[in-house]
Write a structure and sequence with these properties.
288 residues; alpha+beta; Muramoyl-pentapeptide Carboxypeptidase, domain 2; 5-stranded mixed sheet; two-stranded antiparallel ribbon; binds zinc ion
């Protein structure tokens, strides 16, 4: 999901089951890492060497899909969000340059849950199953994908750039008691800048998603990138994904093994263009 903009509280252990605030700009990181992301772990070679013995039993994670009871019908919520305007923001270093990683490397795989009803809202919120990222993040993602090829694995993309209005819709749709799990539209999400990606791994030979210690958007303790449960193979895959991403300039969010921020995320503005509008802008600039 997208509680990723929550700050880490000094001296207080991150509450796995109940993240609290959603502040983006207020907290300072000491390096390129976004607030709330973990320091980099062991490198790819080190993680690769820790591969556990092959496990015939490869059970799916125990946690089921996380669902909220919508505050209103999705059509009503969409209507309510129509006139909403993103927050004012300071100028950023770079102009947006959103691209589809699958256009750079068609062997990347998509599983865009928000374009289906298989997500925490049980409602379709994207018109199209597409994933966009700002160019440096997209290129880094392709390199991470390539680095996993020798392990017989590839990257399975769930979500990248997310229009601000969708973050607003998530907020409006989620009951007050569960809003800790979603980004506050008044500060926005790193997904709104095209600098964050939600992803997992798939098996190159079968095309199937590989099991991790938790499911995507499962808001349980098992979502933590250093959760010690699950099977050894599930934990190894999760650690391998993290090492491959970190080697290319991404950092993992401390509440979600599937969420990574690219080091350039802060250099891009918060955006509210739809996928179709991205296409239209590109056509315009190509015809100039
Ligand atoms: Zn995310």
């Amino acid at each position: 999901m997208h509680a990723e903009d929550m700050p880490k509280s000094d001296g207080i252990k991150f509450p796995l089951a109940a993240p609290a605030l959603t502040i983006l700009a207020a907290c300072g990181a000491t390096d390129d890492r976004a607030p709330g992301t973990l320091p980099h772990g062991p490198d790819l070679q080190t993680v690769a060497a820790r591969r556990p013995p092959a496990d015939d039993a490869d059970p799916p994670p125990k946690d089921g899909a996380y669902r909220v009871q919508l505050t209103a019908e999705i059509a009503v919520l969409r209507e309510r969000c129509k006139g909403a305007v993103p927050p004012q923001q300071p100028a950023t270093a770079r102009a947006p340059d959103l691209v589809e990683p699958t256009q750079l490397d068609p062997s990347l795989k998509l599983d865009v849950r928000y374009a289906t009803t298989d997500n925490f809202l049980s409602a379709r919120v994207y018109d199209e199953a597409r994933v966009f990222l700002q160019r440096p993040a997209a290129e880094a993602l392709v390199r991470a994908h390539e680095s996993l090829r020798s392990f017989g694995m590839g990257l399975l993309l769930h979500d990248g750039y997310r229009p601000w209005r969708v973050t607003k819709l998530f907020w409006e749709a989620t009951p007050l008691a569960q809003r800790d799990f979603v980004a506050d539209p008044s500060s926005g999400s790193r997904h709104n800048r095209g600098g964050a990606i939600d992803l997992s791994l798939f098996d190159l030979a079968t095309g199937r998603a590989l099991f991790m210690p938790s499911g995507f958007d499962a808001f349980t303790e098992a979502a933590h990138p250093e959760f010690a449960g699950g099977t050894p193979m599930q934990r190894w895959r999760r650690d391998l994904l993290r090492a491959a991403m970190e080697a290319q300039g991404f950092s993992v969010y401390d509440g979600e093994w599937w969420h990574f921020d690219h080091a350039t995320w802060q250099q891009y503005p918060l955006l509210d263009v739809t996928f179709a509008e991205i296409d239209a802008t590109r056509r315009q600039s190509n015809s100039k």
